[in-house]
């Protein structure tokens, strides 16, 4: 059976059907379901769509500007945070795949995991370039460049492939289920190393502002949708334990994402002030 949205679009495109009547019927259905629930569902779908490519601006930040800038970005990103995020995505994808959940439900995590893996490999590569010395890359032959790339990414790539094989083929389903329960706690813990790194460096220029702001907005939407589900079940006097856990997890995630964005804003202002003070002293 076609989805209600597809059916609605087909009816709207049908010249023999009154558009006004169709829209009135659709609005009646929205009111019957509840405007809040419909808005929550639409926002949730939007979040999944955007989240599927949320790391692209961060990847771009590692690929543009000068070699020195790319190395600086790579040094500022926390491998611990990214590794935990990637592991979380792998566990989530494995759990859903083993339980034959529709791909649409976990496709976001697969795409996010792939993007994180690309970022980790780029970080390893650029940190390796720093040890060789900035500016030496252009002077290398194609053979030496290939050897450098291979040396930088072989170990992390082997670890990634081995992890994927272990969780998909060797790990018992009971272990996967247990780790899936820890999905939200792991995603929360993963943010602390990056916050610590930003604090130590007193800058967040290595992070993409687009990603930081999108993460905050996404967390806000998830808090809203979770609260909507919680309120609906509570009104019907149903068990709200799962919704309460989700709401607490997403609220904590919102706080930590806000801290990361706050660090970016505060440290940027501190950097601008430092530059202004240096100009005054010249």
Which SSEs are present, and which pair or pack?
Elements: H1 4-13, H2 19-33, H3 35-51, H4 56-61, H5 67-76, H6 79-98, H7 107-132, H8 142-170, H9 173-181, H10 183-189, H11 191-201, H12 209-235, H13 241-281
Helix pairs in contact: 3-12, 5-7, 6-7, 6-8, 6-9, 6-10, 7-8, 10-13, 11-13, 12-13
Structural notes for this entry:
The chain is mainly alpha-helical. It has one domain (37-274). The protein has helices spanning 4-13, 19-33, 35-51, 56-61, 67-76, 79-98, 107-132, 142-170, 173-181, 183-189, 191-201, 209-235, 241-281. The longest helix is centred in the C-terminal third of the chain and has 41 residues, at 241-281. 24% of the residues are buried. The mean pLDDT is 81.
How is this structure best summarized?
The protein is mostly helical and 282 residues long. The chain has 13 helices and no strands.
Mean pLDDT: 81
What structural category do the secondary elements indicate? Answer: mainly alpha
Unreliable residue runs: none
Overall spatial form: globular
| Main sheet attributes: strand count, strand direction, barrel closure | none
State Rg: 23 Å
Number of helices: 13
Oligomeric state of shown chains: single chain
The helix-strand sequence is HHHHHHHHHHHHH
Domain tally: 1
Distance between the termini: 73 Å
Helical coverage, percent range: over 70%
Q: Which terms would index this structure?
A:
transmembrane helix, 282 residues, membrane, PQ-loop_rpt, mainly alpha, 13 helices
């Amino acid at each position: 059976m076609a989805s209600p949205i597809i059916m609605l679009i087909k009816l709207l495109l049908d010249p023999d059907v009154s558009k006004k009547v169709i829209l009135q019927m659709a609005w009646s259905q929205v009111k019957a379901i509840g405007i809040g629930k419909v808005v929550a569902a639409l926002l949730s779908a939007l979040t999944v769509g955007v989240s599927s490519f949320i790391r692209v601006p961060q990847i771009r930040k590692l690929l543009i500007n000068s070699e020195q800038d790319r190395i600086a970005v790579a040094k500022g990103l926390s491998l611990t945070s990214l590794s935990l995020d990637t592991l979380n995505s792998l566990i989530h994808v494995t759990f859903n795949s083993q339980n034959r959940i529709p791909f649409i439900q976990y496709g976001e995590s697969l795409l996010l995991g792939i993007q994180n893996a690309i970022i980790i490999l780029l970080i390893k590569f650029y940190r390796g370039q720093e040890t060789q010395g900035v500016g030496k890359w252009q002077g290398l032959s194609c053979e030496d460049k290939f050897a450098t790339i291979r040396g930088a990414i072989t170990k992390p790539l082997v670890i990634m492939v081995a992890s994927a094989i272990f969780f998909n083929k060797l790990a018992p389903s009971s272990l996967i289920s247990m780790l899936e329960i820890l999905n939200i706690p792991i995603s929360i813990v993963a943010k602390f190393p990056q916050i610590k790194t930003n604090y130590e460096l007193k800058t967040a220029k290595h992070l993409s502002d687009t990603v930081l702001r999108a993460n905050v907005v996404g967390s806000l939407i998830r808090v809203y949708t979770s609260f909507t589900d919680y309120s609906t079940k509570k009104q019907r006097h149903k068990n709200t334990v799962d919704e309460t856990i989700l709401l607490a997890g997403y609220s904590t995630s919102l706080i930590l994402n806000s801290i990361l964005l706050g660090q970016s804003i505060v440290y940027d202002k501190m950097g601008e002030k430092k530059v202004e003070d240096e100009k005054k002293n010249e």
